[in-house]
Design goal:
This protein is mainly α. The protein folds into 2 domains: 32 residues; 190 residues, Alpha-lytic protease prodomain-like (Up-down Bundle). The protein is 87% helix and 0% strand. It is elongated and about 60 Å long.
Length: 230
C-alpha cells in the first residue's frame, strides 16, 4: 500500500471512530431516560390519583355531615380531608426528586394524622358532655361506606406506588389511608348504635376512631424514622 493510501485509510478509520464515539455519547445524553425523572413522574402520578380520590370522598362525606351532624362522621371527614392535603408536600418532594424532601413530607403526613386525631378526640368529648340527636341515619351509613371505598382505593394506589418507587412516605400514607377505610366503617357502626336507641354510641365511636388514628400516627412515625434520607 502506498503511503498516501495508508494515511487516507488511517484518517478514514479515525474519523469513523470519532463518529461512533459521538453517536455513542449522543445516545447517552438523549437516548436514555433519567431514572430520577421517571421516578418523579411516577410519584407525581400516584399522588395526583390518590388526591383526586380522597377529595371526592371528603366532598361526599362533607355534604352528608351537613345534614346529619354526626361527630363520628366529622372525625372521619376531618381525617380524610387532612389525608388528601398531605399529597401536596409529597408531590413537591417528587417534583424536587429528593429523598430527603420525601422524608420531610412524610413528617408532615405524620403531623396531619396527629392533628386530625386531636380534632376528632376533642369533638367526641364535647359530644359526650352534650349529646345531640342524629338525623338521616341511612345517609350517615352511606357516608361511612363511601369513606371506606375511597380510602381503600387511595391506599392501594399509594402502597403500590410506594413499594414500586421505594418511598417510605408513600408507604406510610398508604397504610394511613387503609386504616382510614376501617375507621370509616366506624361511622356505619355509629349509625347503627343511634338507630338501636343508643345516642352516646356516636361520640364513643368517635373516641374509638381517635385511638385508632393515634395508633396510625405512631406506626407512621416509625416508618418515616427508619427511611433512608439519601
Amino acid at each position: 500500500m502506498r503511503m498516501s493510501d495508508h494515511a487516507h485509510a488511517t484518517a478514514y478509520a479515525d474519523s469513523d471512530a470519532d463518529a461512533q464515539v459521538h453517536a455513542h455519547g449522543h445516545g447517552h445524553s438523549h437516548g436514555l431516560i433519567d431514572p430520577s425523572a421517571t421516578r418523579s413522574r411516577a410519584g407525581l402520578q400516584t399522588v395526583a390519583i390518590s388526591l383526586a380520590v380522597l377529595l371526592a370522598t371528603a366532598l361526599v362525606q362533607g355534604a352528608i355531615f351537613v345534614s346529619t351532624g354526626s361527630v363520628a362522621l366529622l372525625a372521619d371527614l376531618t381525617h380524610n380531608a387532612g389525608d388528601a392535603l398531605t399529597a401536596i408536600p409529597l408531590g413537591i418532594a417528587f417534583l424536587l426528586r429528593s429523598r430527603l424532601a420525601e422524608k420531610r413530607a412524610g413528617a408532615f403526613v405524620v403531623l396531619a394524622i396527629f392533628v386530625s386525631a386531636c380534632v376528632a378526640g376533642a369533638e367526641s368529648i364535647t359530644r359526650l358532655a352534650d349529646p345531640r340527636d342524629l338525623d338521616h341515619l341511612g345517609a350517615l351509613a352511606l357516608a361511612g361506606v363511601a369513606g371506606f371505598v375511597g380510602n381503600e382505593i387511595a391506599a392501594q394506589v399509594r402502597l403500590r406506588g410506594g413499594r414500586r418507587l421505594d418511598s417510605a412516605a408513600l408507604i406510610a400514607d398508604g397504610r394511613h389511608a387503609r386504616t382510614d377505610g376501617l375507621v370509616s366503617l366506624g361511622v356505619v357502626a355509629s349509625a347503627l348504635c343511634v338507630a338501636a336507641g343508643f345516642p352516646l354510641g356516636d361520640p364513643l365511636v368517635g373516641l374509638a376512631i381517635t385511638v385508632i388514628i393515634l395508633r396510625v400516627t405512631w406506626q407512621s412515625i416509625r416508618t418515616i424514622r427508619d427511611a433512608p434520607s439519601g
